[in-house]
Write a structure and sequence with these properties.
globular; mainly alpha; two-stranded antiparallel ribbon; 61% helix; two-stranded antiparallel sheet
């Protein structure tokens, strides 16, 4: 089972976003990661899946409540936009639910989670640096509805902003010096300012030397090469104004639908109806699926009700997994500029670290193992309180 999980998730991360399957609508794309996570979840159903959900109710309760809000928001969306957009929202709601509960499957299968995290980290770093060395010009991806990047690390994720956040997670997690150095080099070569800020914010909440890290990042960014391409110009302002426009659009949609929003993940259809998107490729463009801010995306698509429940979920997440706090802080800062809260590879990383923290350890007395969190230093364990 360990080999199968490693193979499925390792191959999925290696492929990244290079290839996806489209279903009945161009707006519905299924990646290898989606398939792998679903298969692993199905396999874990045989191992007391339902009882484990109840055991971790302090985490699963807000997940199911937010999922319910998503479904509720899709009822008016069905009458407003039609059957296909509502079905798209339903499928993406289900995907979020599966990813958010994926830590349970990983715990039940009892595989070495930490080694899996290292494997995935190495794949992300290797593919990113290899792409930067051998395929620095990726502007040809514009024809496939991706942003055109030049002389930036995008790996197989095909987006420097999201990949940069994954490198931040690796830097906050690993204590291996070689992996840390390689991840740091890959991070700075993404030229992702949102990832830089997330990196600083995450380290500010960690127990490591924040001042040294801040100085290292500042000096390194100052000395970064500036080859051709606007993307490597950290002083670029066009993307800032673009984000301002995206935020204003999300706030406009939210102000008209403050309670339940326009429906989870039917955002591109709302943008079309508001006249914000007139591009002929509005249905297939990767940039039109969400706002340039996850928090505003939640407000616009699930309203104040969904926004409140989601913040409650993150509060529970950090309360019961304190070692996740730096990563969650980094994620929240990053999500101000990109829709990273719902990004599949981000959700996978959270599930992996949660499973690593909650993975059972055998009891010395031979009694059934209890889920126990690892300390941030990994030197001792203490029991997780089980919610009643």
């Amino acid at each position: 089972m360990t080999f199968l999980v490693y193979l499925l998730l390792g191959f999925s991360v290696l492929i990244g976003n290079v290839y996806k399957f489209s279903l009945f609508s161009p707006d519905i794309r299924i990646s290898f990661l989606d398939i792998s996570v679903t298969l692993i979840t199905i396999i874990s159903w045989r191992r007391n899946y339902t009882s484990t959900i109840k055991q971790f109710s302090h985490l699963t309760k807000p997940i199911f409540i937010f999922f319910s809000v998503c479904l509720l928001s899709l009822i008016p969306a069905f009458f407003r936009y039609g059957q296909i957009p509502a079905l798209v929202g339903l499928l993406y709601s289900l995907r979020w639910l599966v990813y958010s509960l994926f830590f349970i499957s990983l715990c039940l299968l009892k595989i070495p989670i930490r080694r899996l995290i290292i494997l995935i980290s190495c794949i992300l770093v290797f593919t990113g640096l290899a792409q930067y060395i051998f395929i620095p010009d990726t502007r040809f991806l514009f024809a496939l509805n991706w942003d055109d990047h030049f002389n930036r690390v995008i790996g197989t994720i095909l987006d420097p902003g999201f990949l940069g956040l994954l490198y931040v997670f690796i830097l906050l997690f690993t204590k291996n010096k070689v992996l840390w150095i390689a991840s740091f080099i890959a991070l700075v070569l993404t030229y992702s300012r949102a990832s830089y800020l997330a990196y600083i914010a995450g380290y500010a909440f960690s127990k490591r030397s924040f001042i040294k890290i801040l100085l290292l990042l500042t000096i390194t960014v100052t000395l970064l090469p500036r080859p051709g391409g606007d993307g490597v110009k950290l002083e670029r302002v066009y993307s800032i104004f673009s984000r301002f426009g995206s935020w204003q659009q999300a706030l406009r949609i939210f102000s008209d639908h403050p309670i339940l929003g326009v429906g989870f993940n039917v955002y591109r259809y709302a943008q079309r109806d508001y006249g914000f998107e007139n591009d002929l490729k509005w249905l297939v463009s990767h940039a039109n699926a969400g706002s340039d801010s996850s928090l505003l995306f939640i407000l616009a698509t699930t309203g104040l009700l969904g926004f409140t429940v989601y913040l409650w979920y993150f509060y529970r997440l950090t309360t019961h997994n304190p070692q996740l706090t730096p990563a969650v802080v980094a994620l929240l800062v990053h999500s101000i500029f990109l829709n990273s809260l719902f990004y599949p590879f981000v959700l996978l990383w959270l599930a992996l670290v949660m499973a690593d923290n909650l993975q059972p350890s055998p009891s010395p007395s031979g009694s059934p193992p209890h889920p126990q969190p690892r300390s941030s230093a990994g030197s001792h364990r203490k029991r997780v309180p089980i919610a009643t």
